[in-house]
Fold:
Amino acid sequence: MVRTKALLSCGLAAVLWGWTGVALAQPPATKIFCDVYPDAPACAKGSTECSTCHDAVPGRNAFGRTVEKHLAPGEPRPLATETFVAGLPEALATAEGEDSDGDGVTNREEIRSGSAPGDAGSKPATEACTPSVVGRYRLCTYDAAYVLRKVYLDFCGRSATMAEQAELQSAADPRAHVHKVLDTCLKSENWRGKDGVVWNLANRKIRPSASIKSGKDAGPVPLGDYEDDYALFVYTQIDNHDARDLLLARYFVERIDGPPTIYETFDRSPVQDYIQRGQDGAQVVDRDHRAGMITTRWFLVAFTMFTPLPRTSAAQAYRAYLGRDLAMQEGIVPIAGEPFDYDAKGVKAPECASCHATLDPLTYPFSRYGGLDSLKWISKTLTAYWTERLSQFPEADTTELANTPEAGAILGQPVANLVEWAEVAANSPEFAETLVMNYWREFFGGPPTAEEMPTFAELALRLRTIHNYGIERMLHDLIDTEVYGVP
Amino acid sequence: MSPERRRHTYGALCGLGLALVGSLACSPSEPQQETPAPLPTGGESRRARVRFKGLHRLENDLSQALSLPIEELCTELGSEPCSRIHKIALGGVMPYTRGIHEPLPLRSVSNAAAVDRLVISACARRAELDFGGATPPVLFGDLTQTLDDLGAERAARRLYNALLRRDESPEERAEIVTFVAQQKAKGATPQEVALLACYALGTSVEALFY
Amino acid sequence: MTPRLSRRNALKAVLGGLTVASAGLLTQRKVRAEDPSEDPRFLIVLTATGGASIIDSVMAVRASECPNASRLNTFPDEQVQSIPGSPFRAVKYASKKVGPLPYAVDTDQAPFVKKYHQDLLAVTWTTTSVNHAVGERRAITGNEAWRGRTLQEIVAAYYGKKALLPNAHLVAGLGFNEAGSDTTLPDYAFGEVVAEPLYWPLSLHGTKGTPARDKASQVADARALRSRLEAASEMNRVYQHAPLLKRWRELRDSRLPAFEQANLIDRLLFLPNDDKHPLGAYGLSPSADAQRVRDAFPDYDRDPVDAQAALAFLLLKQRLSVAITLGFTFELSYNEAAGGLGNGELPPGALFNLPIGFDFSHQSHRAAQALMWSRVFKVVDGLITLLKSEEYAGGQSLWDRTLLYIATDFGRTKDRPENHEGFGSGHDLNNGVLLLSPMVNGNRILGGVDPTTCLTYGFDPITGAPDPGRTMNEAQIFSGILGALRVDTSASGLPDVPAMRKG
Structure:
């Protein structure tokens, strides 16, 4: 059949094109900014946030507008990437002396101090914060009593009683006492039970849907059960288990309701699991091809569905576990020669290619894992992983589809398959940052400010290098920070 | 982790982003000396960041404060649990059926109304039990028929201890005593006064945010 | 009345071969009203979640028109009806099952299309994402066409200053519900989520219906006490400038009393006062229109969309909202009153919404589309009927001021295995959307469909002339909707699409 190809999935790039010609938000910008200001608090993890220049992408904030004014003046918009990259350092330098947001502080000072140069409501503190007392609060200093109250609420899910507060006063080492309480709360049902705090952190990653749930409390069209996904997620986050198992686990986890709720690992082949839990409940990927949360039956059913090249799966994995949302042009690491467009979706079009040069090689390793389509052939293969999967789409109107490689790339690194993909991902700084971000957002209601970025980056670094990806150790660090502990 | 290790950890983290806090917080000796130096009074939080307790914490706190099982805290129309009817308004999530994966920002008037309804129902239930005579009063026993000042002061202490987990200040105590007297003058019953004072304190920001 | 592109300018645009974008710049629209909220217009976004295909509706293609009919999504000629006096078509479709679901479908779009063709506008477009969440978001932001604002937010900001709930989302969790990314809009423009429409009115009053229902004066005293206690509290001193507490106090101390004063709890409750819902026993009374909306949406207590639609009407009638989002989700909605499997089949009326909504087309395209379109049209019919019966002012009905946008994620793939009737479809960027309103250029299809490919093509945004060489993008349709709603878009840089609006 001959037809004009619609640009399937190409919106990833087009999202930031103002169609009237508003400039494209440039992915390298966050990195270039930090090349220019390596010591800025906002650059603690190597690149700054889009919000430095943008309020509503592609709309710019006051600072962004200043930079834009000085960026390659006279050149037609939108700028070519090369022009943008070449001109940005000078534009930043020129903008330094101005006070874009009109708060009385130059952009240079704001960048150096960690306040937002494009937000008049954010400016460096002009006065030293002098420790003082207001009732139970000790201001401008780490306040162990305040931390105790927060720990009870954040982790135990209730306020500290007066007796529990009094225990702190009599403790020989108040800080040690707070950490002891934290350990207790980390074992609470509020923290680790079904629908508890950790459980709910997984909602956006799993995206459950009751109507297609299988297993217990099955929906009317049972296709997959997300209970295993939640159980694995929680398991990796408690008891200082290695949180990289989110992507590396070759085992599954069963939840045994309590209290206390207990999570136990198990490892069965698809056939064994079929025998044990039946068709509706069994996991479907053989052990050698498992990659934690991104090869569970639910993940494959919910995100891969019937798609030969499951870009949605790759984008979801990238967003959920590496914190990079390609639809927001985050995590763009183009691979030379890509996109090839094996499934003839028109992704070579210039407005599509800039994102698909990252997304498509990110996706290839997912292409051997069947979603709903695996029902057709799983009885032969006994696993939802099948190297010949792409030859199972006779209706595909391209002969190139079957030539799609399994090898791809993530974060610029080539990988042979999804297991390698997961290893690169799980050992990346981005993964650790995303883990910490999950909890940061939970406790602080949003991402770190530029001023807080060094603390955030240190937490992520220590999670990787000292704590062996034990989340509870990281949480002990977190409650010791000034961000958490100073009212 | 040992206390020593904790201090070491703190030392490492304390050095980060502490321009705000000043030298005291980062002093190497500070972690070992939590309270001794008297500090001046006054001031306010530089960061000014608070968090809404949300459905489960509110329920747990109310349940504990009022000695009521969670399922007895609040129903609508006699049978529908408030925690179901007002789940989202109270900061809950509905990931499985509504795709609401995390609490929504506090932007809706229903947030405030649902909190009022939850607390007022819970307080009314406690008052009903305390004044019903079937069991010894748990919270409102000091609000006797005379609604005298001494009883009001004691009630203030109990309410603050239960709902805010702290003692009241003299100013706060005086407000409660004045309120009780005013309500008495208006003909309110002790049970009504109990309900109203409980509602006032239970919906104050200190009971809802941290 | 909105000044429109003059003939002279239109001629210039055409003769000059100007792009749509530059035409837009020539025609930045101004609105005369000093305060648009004095004379609002209303937007309803009805979510056809999962991919509602325009060629399974008013732009269906007959097999006899297509040389590749057996390989494309064309219908047997007899299933595609023409609607007299209009360019629209209507599909009549029956099937004993919907893919694997043993559920009989028997639908006919003709009565709906005949009834509303004068207010019906079909516009084609080719969107930019086949990801559900992304496609849905772009359907309401025009692919971030105006600083990432959503249609609902724009309408709420423009017309909703005086409304108590300008932007009500009666359905949740979809890309259609996402907040826009322009934080410079006023707070009131952002959506308020109503997760349980049936009971939500109860959360519009702090005490009515509670044990303190007959203590209004005392509750006022208690609230005053609360303020004094807060003023005295240490937490208040420490966090007196916390943004979240400022917002909370605004909600609690300003907005809630306004809601209570307006007695929205009673004005919006449409539950019956019966044994199951003893409203009277709790000092509550249902809205004066409760019976009316229950009659219009009789499944209000079982079908979430019926409940949403009932509340939507009340919100509009009471001028409480200017933008309302409601509709179908990915969640199966089963009518338990219809009973369970009998003789291995689901009884008639058992399915209010298919699992994964329109996306069930993956399993069974034709039947899923037919069933879901019929559900959409049923809800739209109920809403329009109510809105037409309600006077706005000066002889105008509420419907005269309302635009209903049937929003969807994307289209569906057009091909099928040879002569396969039960085929499943994938996601496709190419599609079209339906708008219903007396304010749109009704009884028209803007653009068309190429019967040899079943792909839609575009139109001249100025004249509306079909243009097989063109496809319309999200920003254009987004702008056209705002234009029909007479929203001032002069500061937006959006293209003008006068072909979509009436008058």
Observations:
- Residues 205-287 of chain C form one domain.
